Fold this sequence. Notes:
2 domains, mainly alpha, Arc Repressor Mutant, subunit A, homodimer, DNA-binding
Amino acid sequence: MSQDLPVTSYALLGLLTFGDDLTGYELKQRADRTLRYYWVAPAMSQVYSELDRLSERGLVRARDAGPNKRSTKYRITPKGRRALTRWMTDEPVGFPVLKHPVVLRLLIGHVVAPEVTRRMLREHLAALAEHRAGLAGVRDSLQGRDEPGDAFRYPSLVADWGLEYLDGERAILEKLLARLDEES
Amino acid sequence: MSQDLPVTSYALLGLLTFGDDLTGYELKQRADRTLRYYWVAPAMSQVYSELDRLSERGLVRARDAGPNKRSTKYRITPKGRRALTRWMTDEPVGFPVLKHPVVLRLLIGHVVAPEVTRRMLREHLAALAEHRAGLAGVRDSLQGRDEPGDAFRYPSLVADWGLEYLDGERAILEKLLARLDEES
DNA sequence: ACAGCCATGTAACTCGTTACATGATTAC
DNA sequence: GTAATCATGTAACGAGTTACATGGCTGT
């Protein structure tokens, strides 16, 4: 009965387990505040097509609330909850995949002047700070609902993980940049 | 004249700037020792199709060396080198994308028993150690050719980056696991 | 009235993967 | 001789993206 779905499907399904029903649009917004930092930010069109697929398989159900069939809210079904639990419990979790264009360019730094590489690193550090600020905002919004047993316990753990992760990346790259600077 | 190529094309092209000509097979091996840790490990079939595309555009040239047209070695052309330098210098570098299934499952940890999540983290830490050992082997093989000006200076910097990155990830996850353990 | 956001979808396309097919060379 | 590895490709497919199209709702 194990219907093989891509991980992103389960990810979106998982976002519907926080006690509320969401429209496709709202689901996309939630993904942008969560999944984005350690999975992907799916395109709007993909959110809708994933919802269609999940509907077909009975893992979510559409309950239109709006006047004229718009604002269709989706709710996870008991079957969907079982499928999600089974996936979490039985399917082997894959190894993380990192696509890091900055490090990729560092690898072939010998084809450009050293200053080009240093500039790239400085700019990346700025982008990193901005990215971190976004996540810090998310983390703050979870304050007070993050104790063991609370609804947003796990999202809070994940946000904390992300902040530490980004701080680690910054520290490593600052050290690397300093090393490049002193050797010119 | 800027022919838009996917990043992976430039990555493979970049692997041909280390002074030697490679067959598709050898290029795949080099990718597995380098790109794999911070970009992707392209499938064999993709390596061949990328080489075809790079050939068509004159960025690499095939020089068959083997007796009967096998063991075709590829060399980057001057035009290829220019295209690569232009890409490094002018194209904006994107932000890293992380696909981290372990953290994704942590986010929705509330749908399974806490022990399932803890077990996942323990297993991931083991996989992480194995992954790190592979990279440490690569790093060791570059010893002695990693000074400023040496051929493998930048690959060594990148390998060092990777080891620190993995150590950071391990530290964060160990702390997280301890936190989950004590709260049970 | 108009701008901006909410909301949903279709079509075309690219990247990248897996499965398959083939055969040569090397080591035991 | 036979297994492992070297070496090269084709075909089918799936995930995910961008571009496009449409229209309702809300605030000013």
